[in-house]
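Sequence design from tokenized structure. All designs in this work follow the same two-part layout: the structure record, then the generated sequence. An example of the structure record is given first.
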């Protein structure tokens, strides 16, 4: 996505090491740093982000539930 959406600075991937019960079975996650709020807002509605998000949700057992 960084190659097609301007303003994405860094994507961080991490393993969930928290003992708290909020992970709902997820073992990994990611966060994205944006240049500014405008870049973040543009990312949220960008077609490439929408497609990638739909693929991630489709891969999840139970979808967004």
């Amino acid at each position: 996505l960084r190659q097609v959406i301007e303003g994405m600075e860094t994507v961080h991937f991490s393993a969930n090491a928290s003992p708290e019960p909020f992970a709902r079975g997820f073992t990994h996650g990611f966060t994205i740093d944006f240049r500014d709020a405008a870049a973040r807002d543009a990312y949220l509605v960008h077609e490439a982000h929408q497609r990638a998000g739909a693929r991630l949700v489709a891969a999840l057992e139970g979808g967004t539930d």
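The chain has two helices and two strands. We note this feature because it recurs in several other targets discussed in the main text.
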